[in-house]
Amino acid sequence: MTTILVPYHQDERLLDDEIPVAADITVRSPVLDGDAWRLVAGVCSATAAAVSPVVAAGGVPVVLSGDCMVAGGTVAGVQGAGVDPAVVWFDAHGDVHTLQTSTSGYLGGLSLRLLNGAHTERYADVIGLRPVSPERTVLVDARDLDPAEVEYLAGSETRRLPVSEVSADTVPPGPLVLHIDVDVIDSGEVPGLRYPASNGPSADAVLAACARLFATDRVVAFDVACPWLRTDDEGQRDIRTRLLSRLTALATR
């Protein structure tokens, strides 16, 4: 297992201890100025460059970042190593907005739709990503959806599953990039999230679903987004450290 830390929330450089994990590689974006799209593209391109050699050598990179936008860089890196993966996306939110449907302008709300090919001139084309088709995408949980996302998903070929139904038989065949936004876990278990969502699955249920996919030996990269706010509360920091320890341990089994 190779742990890759991407200490960014979109275009914001996080402090090193905000994602409490021991990293083998820490990504530094070469892009230091420009608009948010250019900065995000720099982070994702640097992530892809870190992921590709690990996958090419037969390893399973564990990529930890502060935002779901980085997942496109992880997938691009896997593709760059000659692997064509499907994507299993655990998230409390849909992340399937476009610039036209987003009411907040928050780029993280576009993350999965960008991965599927929206706004290619701003994202996929810039970071070297071949968009993953919706039919090769599974959206897990997504209990907190905006009306525009509900409408899109109703007509999309993106498969939707509850956490309990994730298994080798319910995800696409072939290699998988597994993406986990930690806010998929009920917010009562993970305090301090930027966009908390209650009434979600437990951490145990999410970890068990991930373990079922790892047991297939088809997971080629594990992407973990930690969109939480910085805290000095030792209790919260301990919860985060233990959660990331449990998640990263999945890739070593």
From TrEMBL:
Signal sequence annotation: none
UniProt-listed PROSITE patterns: ARGINASE_2
Protein's UniProt keywords contain Lyase: no
Keywords of this entry: Hydrolase, Manganese, Metal-binding
Gene3D superfamilies: Ureohydrolase domain (3.40.800.10)
Annotated family: Belongs to the arginase family.
Protein name per its UniProtKB record: Arginase
Organism (species): Micromonospora andamanensis
Phylogenetic classification of the source organism: Bacteria, Bacillati, Actinomycetota, Actinomycetes, Micromonosporales
